[in-house]
UniProtKB/TrEMBL annotation:
First and last residue of the signal peptide: none
Organism of this sequence: Subsaximicrobium wynnwilliamsii
Binding residues for substrate: 12-17
Region (Interaction with substrate tRNA): 35-38, 159-163
Full protein name: tRNA dimethylallyltransferase
A single GO BP: tRNA modification
Catalytic activity entry: adenosine(37) in tRNA + dimethylallyl diphosphate = N(6)-dimethylallyladenosine(37) in tRNA + diphosphate
Protein residues bound to ATP: 10-17
Site feature Interaction with substrate tRNA, where: 101, 123
EC number: 2.5.1.75
Description of how the protein assembles with itself and partners: Monomer.
């Protein structure tokens, strides 16, 4: 097997984009994004998408290629990403993938698991509960039905919470029990590189990033999206909190503090998810890039 996918994972704000560009330039290759929030062209500041300069530094795929009004999920991403990799590997022995969305990373590297069919009435019932009682009610239901999924998935995303619950209810089995099937056969070998830091440092970097986003105009970006706040793509950290401010429910200082708090929680879930893969090579975020490159080349050569 001569083709390698270098997958860069880790918590938000740890420096994955910077490393991915350095690796793409070193290996003279291209980058696939597996960050489910950066797919949407209307969401730029709040998703910490690569800047124009970063996009010019190396060819990127799956950045701002969809609209928040499009129907798009991990299954569609798996198909499109695999098709893209097939083309990229015709010209490159190595391709870089980067992103903090664990399910989307796994969809490419391992393939999606097989789940039981779900009665549409169950989904309708859960959506009705979401509308009547709010997301917290569904989160509590998931926590009781499947604590493992609750601890690792993006529970701030109502679509994913409902998906897990409908599987639990339909099968009588925790959703997490279906995440144990054998990996699909891939025509490439994956080298997984993880970036991490002491938790206090991760949290400091997250809070600094939120401050930079606000200074860059995040509030203005969110305000333009307020009429579409009901869309699933916008049920995410950095947007839903500012929607509450814009609708007069919170003051701005509290909304920003909630963004920081929810981002810290998200980072904790990311680490829990990525740490499941024992094959990942972990590096401190301050590790010199040449050391990471040496480690990758020792795996390839």
């Amino acid at each position: 097997m001569s083709n390698y996918l270098i997958s860069i994972v880790g918590p938000t704000a740890i420096g994955k984009t910077r490393l991915s560009i350095a690796l793409a330039r070193h290996f003279d290759t291209e980058i696939i994004s597996a960050d489910s929030r950066q797919f949407f062209k209307e969401m730029q500041i709040g998703t910490a998408a690569p800047t124009a300069d970063e996009l010019e530094a190396a060819p990127h795929h799956f950045i701002h290629h969809k609209s928040i009004t499009d129907s798009y999920n991990v299954g569609a991403f798996e198909k499109e990403a695999m098709a893209s990799l097939e083309q990229l590997f015709k010209n490159h022995d190595t391709v870089i993938m980067v992103g903090g969305s664990g399910l989307y990373v796994d969809a490419v590297t391992k393939g999606l698991d097989e789940f039981p069919k779900v009665d549409p009435e169950i989904r309708n019932s859960l959506n009705a509960k979401l509308k009547a009682e709010g997301l917290e009610a569904l989160q509590l239901q998931l926590k009781n039905a499947d604590p493992k999924s609750y601890a690792t998935m993006a529970v701030d995303n109502p679509q994913r919470v409902i998906r897990a619950l409908e599987v639990c209810i339909s099968s009588g089995t925790p959703y997490s029990d279906f995440l144990t099937s054998e990996n699909k056969q891939r025509s490439f070998k994956t080298i997984s590189i993880g970036l991490t830091a002491e938790r206090v440092k991760i949290y400091e970097r997250i809070e600094a990033r939120v401050d930079l986003m606000m200074a860059a105009g995040l509030l203005d970006e969110v305000e333009t999206l307020l009429p579409q706040k009901h869309l699933n793509a916008l049920q995410t950290v950095g947007y839903k909190e500012l929607f509450n401010y814009l609708e007069g429910e919170w003051d701005l200082e509290f909304a920003i503090s909630e963004i920081k708090k929810n981002s810290r929680r998200f980072a904790k879930r990311q680490l829990t998810w990525f740490k499941r893969d024992a094959s990942t090579l972990w590096f401190d975020y301050e590790t010199p890039q040449h050391q990471i490159i040496d480690a990758i080349e020792s795996e390839i050569f």
